[in-house]
Amino acid sequence: MASSARELTLIGVCDGDIDPRRHKTSFLTNKVGGPPDWSPLTARQSPCCGRCGSTLVHAVQIYCPLDASRFHRNLHLFACPQSECRGGPQCWRVLRSQCLETAVTASRPAPAQEAPRSATAWCDSADDWGVEEEEEEEEEEDGWSGGKNSHVQVEREASERDVNSQLQDLSLAESQGDVPILRSFFISVVDESDLAGEEDDLQHVQQLLKDYEKREGVVVRALGGVDLEEKYEKASARHGDGLFAKFMKKISLCPQQILRYCHGGEPLFICKPPPNMAAVVPACGICGGSRMFELQLMPALVGVLQMAGGGGGTELEFGTVLVYSCTNSCWTAESQSAVDEFCFVQLDPDQQLFK
Fold this sequence. Notes:
Shape: globular
Mean pLDDT: 75
Strand order of the largest sheet: 12-6-5-4-3-8-1-9-10-11-13
Strand content: 15-25%
Radius of gyration: 21 Å
Number of strands: 13
Largest sheet: 11 strands, antiparallel
Structural class: alpha+beta
Number of helices: 5
Distance between the termini: 40 Å
Number of domains: 1
């Protein structure tokens, strides 16, 4: 099993709150926070912190089937919300789960959609894990390996959004008991190559401004009030090398990106990695094979991660979290337990530059 030969980088951005009274989610949904949606054949898990033993919060869920594979495939990232554990590598876990397409055909859940307007749609007996029981939908699945896709667009008035988010927080806090829950948002997927044209347009406009300044002898304020090129230079000087500046310049195409996905590609380091990075990434604990880079969480996600139920702004502090998964994506049809993959955490050398 392998992803497409062309190295494709997809970026994820937040796309509105998930209100459990209006939206059903399933393991086919890309989302931030909320409870994890396990596939029908995968045992539910509540992983604990390797440092303090606390129950980890579910941070991100990604549906990422591989090309030419018979399996559905998910990655779930969990992190410890305790202040003393923030940023620690042993305080993050990523679990990979898979299931055969044929095994879920009879009860296949639909991608996240607006639920029927029914007073009993989300009663206590409803399926908390988002499996569609009444009908099958033939909509395209929202994956990461096969190309760019978009999630449901959530459009509503600001006042309605506030009410819905409060109801969501209350519902999640009550239904999950002592398990910590983060506010939940859809993730929309964009092909990074589609943003290149926008960068060319911006550079062209900036060049026109420079020509105008030279010709007229005046100074025009930088576009958007921010001189990105100057910021890169300052960042490079402050941190002693160009790696952080390169990171900043790369994400300037879409500063609000919360996730980058490039299965088998190259990670975008925020600071200098260990010289023996290849040795730092352990072999797969199941098959003993090598692991490859698959995705990373980005600094913009830090400001999005908030506890549900008005629990305050519990931030998970990190610069970027890199996920390495089994090159073979080893799995058997009989497997029912999600398997651990590897997280490598880099702290943010200058968090205020992202605010």
